[in-house]
Amino acid sequence: MIANWVWSSWSGIGIVIVSAAMMIAAVIATIRVIGLRSLSKMSSFDFAVTVAIGSITASTVASGTPVADGVVAVAALLSVQAVIAVLRRRASFGRVVDNTPVLLMREGAMIDPAMSRCRVTEDDVLAKLREANVLELSSVRAVVLETTGDISVLHGTGPVDALLLEHVHDVR
Length: 172
What we know:
The chain is α+β, with helices and mostly antiparallel strands. The protein is built from seven helices and four strands. The protein has helices at 2-6, 10-34, 44-63, 67-87, 91-97, 112-118, 122-131, and strands spanning 102-106, 109-110, 140-145, 151-155. Strands 2-1-3-4 form a four-stranded antiparallel beta sheet. Strand 3 and strand 4 (151-155) form a beta hairpin.
């Protein structure tokens, strides 16, 4: 019994290897057709699709699901993502699909209510400041939690162009 849990058979291993190669080839081909944006992290929906593609690929390879089913599922996800990317250009639809970026820090001061609302700690922000090579908090003009979950740091001596913060939610 333990042997079956550790090892199935050479033919089973062969099927996994061939399935893996076919799924990866199908994912690459589909992304080539639909475009590189399919793997971007421009929105939370894009991230969810990327994770789902990985999950479908892995479950198809490991579970013995027919490769054609996995290929169709990946192609369907990427097609829906492409349609949503086009629809996101409309402001009303974009508000439904996308998160709003949030201002976490302005002019060297952390915005505690925003950080609390977004579940971001001071240590998280400080780590991003170090990553951005910030040497003085007074040089930080803004820190933004982006729609993707990334944190952007705007720092320097000049003012921040208003366009960069136009759609950023400021809880103050």
